[in-house]
Predict the structure.
Amino acid sequence: MITERLRARTPHSAAESMPRAAAIIRAGGLVAFPTETVYGLGASAFDAPAVARIFEAKGRPTFDPLIVHIADRADLTHLFTEAALADPRIKLLADAFWPGALTIVAAARPEVPGLVRAGLETVGVRLPRHETALSLIRAAGTPIAAPSANRFGRLSPTTADHVLEQLDGRIDAVLLGEATDIGVESSVVALDGSGPARLLRHGGIPLEDLARALADHGGIVAAAPTAQPGVPLQSPGMTESHYAPMVPLVLATTAFPDGVAECALLAPDRATLTHLETLATAAGAKVHASVALSETLDPAAAAAHLFERLHELEAALISRAVPAARIIAAPYPEGGLGSAIADRLRRAAATPQ
Ligand code: TXA
Ligand code: MG
C-alpha cells in the first residue's frame, strides 16, 4: 500500500486535501492526522471493519480500547447512553476542557462497535482543539476512532515524520498539518459509576485542574499508575511497558545505574543534565547525546518536545550502532503537567528488556 501524503499546513492546502482524506475515511480507510496532543490514526468509528484495520496497522492487541473523536458536542448522543448523559459532570467537564486534551469515558450505546470499546461497557470520547482534526471529522461526517499513530508500544508521534517512520505503507494517508503543541496524550477520566470520577491516564489536562472543576461533584481520584499484583488494570491500555523507545530507557532515580558503558542522557532541566553528565563521566560511561527537556523546569515546553527528544536520542544511539546502549533519564518532578511527563518516562522505563 502506498501512503498518500496530504498537505494541510495552510488553510488553502487543507481545503484541497480534506475532501480526499474524508473520502478515504468514509470508504473504510485509515488516515493519520495531527491533534493538539499527538498524531492520531483515524477510521470511521461506526465502521467495525475499518476499526479492525487500525489494530492491524498498529499491531495493537484488541484488549486496548480506542478514543472516539467528535467535532460537535451533539455527537455525544450517538456514543454515550441517555443515563450516562444525565450525569452533570459530563457538561461540566466539556464546558471546562473541550475542545481540548481531555477524554471522557462513560457508558457506551450498544451501537458503538465492540472493537472500539475493546468489549467494555464504556467508550472514551474526546473533542479535540486542533483545526485539522476538527476539519477531518466534519468533512468525514462521522465520529473518528483514533489511537495515537504509532506501532503498538512504541513512542507516540508528534510529527508526520514520526508517523511515517512507523506506519508508512501500512495506512492509506497522512495529513501533514500544523504540529502538535501539547505533546503528550489526553488525560483520560472515567465517569462510570456512582463514585468519584477516576483519572485513568495523566495527560494534557493536569489532575489539579480536573480536581478543581469537579470539587463540588465528588472530586476525582487517580487510578493506580501501573498494574498492581492481583488488581485488574482499570484502563486496559495502560500496560506498564508503553511509550517505549527501541533503546532501553533506565530511570536514574538515586545514583547512575551500574554497568552502563554507552548512553544518551535526558534530564528535566539544564542543571540536572549537568549533574547527570558528571555522574556518567564518574561511572566511566561514554555519553553519545544529551538533552535537557527545557533550560529551567517548564513542564509545558518539556511535554511539547518529550517524544521528539526521545525519538532523537533513540536515533542517535541506533545510527551509531552502539550495542548495549541505554537512554538514562532523570525522573521528572510530579505535579501539574509534570505528572504526565513523569508517567511517560516511568512507562518507557518499564519495557521488558
Ligand atoms: O491524546 C490522545 O488521547 C490521542 C489523540 C490521538 O487523541 N489518542 C490516544 O489514544 O492517546 P491511545 O489509543 O494511544 O490511548 C487511548 C487510551 C487507551 O489505551 C486506554 O488506556 C484509554 O485511552 N481508554 C480508551 N477507552 C477507554 C475505555 N472505554 N475505558 C478505559 N480506558 C479507555
Ligand atoms: Mg498510544
User: Anything to note?
Assistant: The first helix runs from residue 11 to 26. The pocket of magnesium ion (ligand 2) is lined by residues 147-148, 156 (CB under 6 Å). The chain has eleven helices and 15 strands.
